[in-house]
Amino acid sequence: MSIVISVNISKTKGVPKEPLEKVIAVKNYGLFGDAHAFKNSNRQVSFLDFDEIMAFNKDLPFGSFAENITVSGLRDESVFVGSIIKIGNTIIKVTQIGKTCHNACNIKKLLGSCIMPKEGIFGVILKGGLIKPNMVVEAINGKDVYNR
């Protein structure tokens, strides 16, 4: 079972995100107030597993890699492009795993390296809702989550 550890947004791109008590996921847009939220974007929301952060550096605050949702246990789930992730009423479709990091990446400059190019999980919001720490994260593969 996976759990939300932290929810994070930033008003500008290329900087660490700030943890919040809760965020609102908006269908086909992203997290309300986040710089990466765009209609019809294939990377409206990003995930990073807490274990990956701990393996990199135990003292980093949540959001350091500009991840929207820090989770525990997601890397233990079978998550792939096309997987459905359900958090409460929010439904997210995984569109990309990893990304190309550009040379001017501020996160890489600040931390010396970045794990999002290999470990980041990106998706689009299929159904909006509230997301906050301690919520259960379900990876649902090949199931019609709208009829559960």
UniProtKB/TrEMBL annotation:
InterPro entries: MoCF_Sase_C (IPR005302), MOSC_domain (IPR052716), Pyrv_Knase-like_insert_dom_sf (IPR011037). Residues 18-140 form the MOSC domain. One of its GO terms (molecular function) is molybdenum ion binding. Pfam families: MOSC. It comes from the Bacteria. SUPFAM superfamilies: PK beta-barrel domain-like (SSF50800). This is MOSC domain protein.
